[in-house]
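From the methods appendix. Each design record in this collection lists the tokenized structure first, followed by the designed amino acid sequence. Records were kept in a plain field format so they could be parsed without special tools. The example shown here is representative of the layout used throughout.

RECORD:
FOLD TOKENS (215 positions):
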């Protein structure tokens, strides 16, 4: 069953837990959808009400609004205070084979499967439901700003993926991966033209950057 949560102008603030107890819910979020290199990665987090309040007081919000230093400082707090958390990913090869939406959904399901128990309610950031999830779920626009579990998932996913890509930068020097973590910056595009793609580049994302074979 799918429901959509959204705050309307002039209405009371939306309940990010959709009437459930927070510790019966899992928030899920992903990072890396728009990258040219590497996997898409997702995290799922279960928080108690107390943990959600405490993490908010520590500065937890949408990972994109946090400095790298603040995100890094929040990771151990989230891991310590969360009832449960899990990480999942889908490879560049899966992205090329199945498309970015299906690969992202696979990463989310894998993160949820790492939780010790399935949540009574899944809260998904955005407007698109998680296909392949049989339990009850809601979608929440800007969920990483309104729901502590989604915000925590966004921070864990971002820090986990960035750390992975920086490790891979040692294996694939010359692309500047340690700087742009796989996104399509001018530096990254120029390196692709000079060096060609690695086995971990998403070939389906490179059509407007690299010349077609035989040209």
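DESIGN:
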């Amino acid at each position: 069953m799918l429901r959509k949560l959204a705050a309307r102008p002039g209405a009371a603030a939306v309940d990010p837990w959709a009437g459930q107890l927070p510790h019966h819910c899992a928030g899920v979020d992903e990072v890396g959808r728009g990258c040219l290199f590497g996997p898409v990665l997702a995290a799922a987090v279960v928080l108690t009400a107390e943990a959600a309040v405490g993490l908010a007081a520590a500065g937890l919000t949408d990972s994109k609004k946090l400095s790298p230093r603040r995100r890094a400082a929040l990771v151990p707090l989230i891991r310590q205070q969360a009832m449960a958390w899990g990480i999942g990913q889908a490879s560049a090869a899966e992205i090329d084979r199945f498309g970015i939406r299906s690969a992202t959904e696979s990463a989310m399901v894998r993160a949820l499967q790492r939780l010790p128990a399935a949540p009574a309610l899944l809260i998904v950031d955005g407007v698109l439901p998680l296909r392949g999830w049989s339990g009850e779920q809601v979608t929440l626009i800007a969920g990483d700003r309104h729901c502590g579990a989604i915000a925590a998932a966004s921070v864990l996913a971002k820090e986990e993926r960035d750390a992975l890509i920086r490790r891979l930068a040692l294996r694939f020097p010359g692309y500047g991966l340690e700087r742009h973590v796989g996104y399509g910056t001018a530096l990254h595009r120029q390196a692709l033209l000079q060096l060609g793609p690695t086995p971990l580049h998403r070939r389906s994302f490179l059509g407007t950057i690299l010349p077609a074979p035989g040209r």
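APPENDIX NOTE: The radius of gyration is 18 Å.
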